[in-house]
Specification:
The complex is a heterodimer of chains A (400) and B (340). By secondary structure, chain A is α/β, with parallel strands linked by helices. Chain A contains eleven helices and 17 strands. In chain A, helix 2 crosses helix 10, helix 5 crosses helix 6 and helix 10 crosses helix 11. Chain B is mainly alpha-helical. The chains are: A alpha/beta (400), B mainly alpha (340).
């Protein structure tokens, strides 16, 4: 009796396994039936961080805005017929594994014709998937220098770190400093290469690199770094670190009375969280990818649609970034006149789109967008460079 | 020292072993019939099954609650990637190297970790996992924070990768079946339930804990290799993420730790049911996941599979229970019968 029930249990288990397999197969089959060449909507997709440590709602809103804009015009003309566009947005909860699984699901099960990026390191991981799956991926939020050499399916339209460094030194040269510079970065490969680039650019611009420090991500004690800044009398500070590290360093600089005259928070001061530093963050410079005073295309659309929801320049810049990326992809689908991935990829290589971040021209899969230098003041950012459309540089009052 | 001889229950293992062999052959043969999307989903499910089953043997049967699966995943994934990127060796060598590398790491870590018990062991394995992730993030030869991209032309994909994943998952299931039905497994559970008593009966606690740690780590390393082949790009944020450890625990606990089929059910419920089917509804997925955990902890602390098992076995067992045995709660009670 016991053995027969035991068999029944194992038979039930085996049946459940087979049923699950069949269920998975059935589900996947039905999804694969909705291919993008069936005359229905053209499906594009993204796996983006909308919860967890990084929240990119603004970029997602930019993607949606581009799709709404195209659909309001009746869709994209593909094969002589206008077809609506459907954007499938999946939240990867800031988890790289989830992102990879979602991208693979979008490509292999939903048969998206193109992908849109997430941010930062996730974009690098996503590039590998785009190349392996041979699905075009348009991304921003990754400085063009940091895009690894791939197999040609990833297209990065974003700022150049070199431009940002050059513009910062131009701004810093206008302030009354001794040009002695302290560079602090995280000690990973990305941080070290950023430090080298800012150091070399600074020397060319006539600045003296008084000290360079590389610290592990998650550092909470910056007393050694601050001591180096004070002892070398560095009046110019460049901090390229993860946001929590920058926050901690700014607080400790105040506590230890280190008062540089000009400071830039590369990456970290770009996050909206910088505003939570209050007055301490005032005067810090930041590299921006967009400004509402620069006369870029679609500025009115972005401000009218999202100006109330997002009051900060960095947030609106992220909406512009999303709009820019999605427009590049949608224009390429239109130019290709096809939903074939290779045809879209070829169209991307020839892209001449002019969108929210200016004109696009890909060289080695990279198209550099303009750089602006902004300055934090009273919880908001104002453009200080280029001078046209910008405000005069204020002093670094937060650390003063 | 020779441990005492105990009944092995080999005859009881015959039917489940035959089922496993038949399922493996069937799954293996199914490869050409599956679409790329189905193959990819199956590889993910089978990889989760492998790590959940490895955790199940280590924690469910031998009582070593580990949060270190990610460390062995990372070792397997990075061994594979480094072998392929920096040498001209073929993928089978890299794949086997992943298992060997993870086993060697387990042997090395056994020296400090097996001195720890209970929560201390869990914290120790978590610390190892975090340390390995930090090491990989700062190791430029291994790509640093950006990781490594595997040469796609030299790695298995599609049906081949699916068949490898089937084999690895079958190995994990076979190991669990062996532990469930062998004298070795009986000694392991004795160590889990009462370590001093087991030691008093002549069971070598250290060697049994080591014998559970090493093969389960090797299996997790092989799962890491499968993930490296599937993901193509591996980075510390991905293959070394502590989420692998948490998922292994979650899937085993939801399905039923200490059972053979519990992790299978757990993988189905947690990954396919909650993560994949609800991927368009992330908030809902999180809410359901939380609710499910609360309900399981409150009403079915042994997991979903023992609950199903009891529901199926209960009528049969009740028919067998005589008034006398029912009063004494002896071997034929439904609770006793439902310990698959």
């Amino acid at each position: 009796m016991i053995r027969s029930t035991s068999r029944r249990i194992h038979a039930l288990g085996a049946a459940a396994l087979l049923a699950a397999t069949a269920g998975c197969a059935g589900n996947a089959s039905s999804s694969s039936g909705g291919k993008n060449d069936d005359g229905g909507p053209i499906v594009i997709g993204t796996s983006i961080s909308l919860s967890g440590t990084t929240v990119l709602n603004q970029i997602r809103d930019g993607y949606l805005l581009a799709v709404q804009k195209v659909n309001a015009e009746g869709g994209l003309e593909v094969g002589g017929k206008k077809r609506k566009v459907e954007l499938k947005v999946l939240d990867n909860r800031s988890d790289t594994n989830t992102m990879v699984q979602q991208v693979r699901s979008l490509a292999l099960t939903d048969h998206v014709v193109g992908l849109l990026g997430s941010c930062c390191q996730q974009n690098i991981d996503m590039q590998g998937q785009a190349d392996a799956l041979k699905v075009p991926l348009v991304m921003g939020a990754l400085p063009v220098e940091l895009l690894p050499k791939g197999k040609g399916y990833t297209w990065d339209s974003f700022q150049s770190l070199a431009d940002g460094a050059k513009d910062f030194y131009t701004v810093a040269a206008g302030a009354k400093t001794d040009k002695k510079t302290l560079i602090v970065t995280n000690n990973d490969a990305q941080g070290i290469s950023t430090g080298k680039l800012w150091g070399a650019t600074g020397k060319k611009a006539g600045f003296t690199i008084a000290a360079t420090k590389a610290v592990p991500t998650g550092t909470t004690d910056f007393s050694d770094v601050i001591k180096a800044g004070k002892s070398s009398h560095a009046q110019v500070l460049i901090a390229a670190m993860a946001p929590p590290d920058c926050f901690a360093m700014w607080k400790q600089m105040k506590a230890l009375a280190y008062k540089p005259k000009v400071a830039v928070g590369v990456q970290c001061a770009q996050t909206p969280g910088w505003g939570s530093l209050g007055k301490l963050g005032d005067g810090t410079l930041v590299q921006l990818n967009w400004s509402d005073t620069a006369g870029l295309p679609e500025t009115n659309l972005i401000v009218s649609k999202y100006g109330k929801k997002y009051t900060n320049l960095t947030d609106l810049g992220s909406v512009a970034l999303g709009l820019h990326e999605a427009t590049i992809l949608l224009d390429a689908i239109k130019s290709a006149g096809s939903t074939d991935a290779d045809a879209i990829n070829k169209a991307l290589a020839k892209s001449t789109t002019v969108s929210a971040q200016g004109p696009v021209k890909f060289v080695d899969n990279k198209s550099v967008t303009p750089t602006f230098i902004g300055q934090w003041e009273g919880g908001a950012i104002k453009q200080v460079w280029p001078a046209k459309g910008g405000s005069p540089l204020a002093s670094l009052t937060g650390l003063g | 020292m020779k441990t005492p001889s105990v009944p092995t229950g080999a005859s009881k293992a015959l039917w489940p072993a035959a089922s496993l062999a038949a399922l493996t052959v069937a799954a293996f043969a199914l490869a050409p019939a599956l679409s790329l999307g189905q193959l990819d989903l199956s590889v993910t499910l089978l990889t989760y099954l492998t790590i959940a089953q490895a955790w199940n043997v280590l924690a469910g049967f031998s009582g070593q609650i580990s949060l270190g699966a990610a460390a062995f995943m990372a070792t397997g994934g990075y061994t594979t990637a480094l072998t392929l990127v920096h040498t001209g060796l073929p993928w089978p060598v890299a794949f086997l190297g992943a298992g060997v590398g993870a086993a060697l790491l387990a042997l090395l870590l056994a020296v400090p970790l097996l001195r720890l018990r209970g929560d201390y062991f869990a914290v120790g394995t978590l610390a190892v996992s975090i340390a390995i992730q930090a090491l990989l993030s700062n190791w430029n030869w291994a790509g640093g924070a950006s990781g490594l991209t595997l040469p796609t032309e030299r790695i298995p994909s599609g049906g081949n990768l699916y068949q490898i994943a089937v084999l690895v998952a079958a190995l994990a299931m076979a190991l669990t079946l062996y532990v469930r039905h062998s004298a070795f497994g009986l000694r392991l559970t004795a160590v889990r339930d009462n370590e001093p008593a087991a030691a008093g009966l002549g069971v070598s606690v250290y060697w049994h804990r080591l014998a559970a740690l090493v093969p389960t780590s090797a299996l997790t390393g092989l799962a890491g290799a499968v993930i490296a082949f599937q993901f193509v790009v591996i980075s510390p944020d991905g293959v070394a993420s502590v989420n692998w450890s948490l998922n292994a625990v979650l899937m085993s606990v939801v399905g039923g730790a200490g059972t053979v089929l519990g992790p299978v059910v757990g993988v189905g419920v947690v990954y396919y049911g909650l993560t994949r089917l609800l991927q368009d509804q992330q908030t809902l997925s999180l809410v359901i996941e939380g609710l499910l955990l609360v309900l399981i902890v409150r009403f079915a602390p042994q997991g979903v599979w023992p609950l199903v098992c009891r529901a199926v076995r209960f009528p049969a067992a009740r028919r067998r229970v005589s008034p006398a045995t029912a009063e004494t709660g002896s071997d034929s009670s439904p609770q006793r019968v439902c310990q698959p």
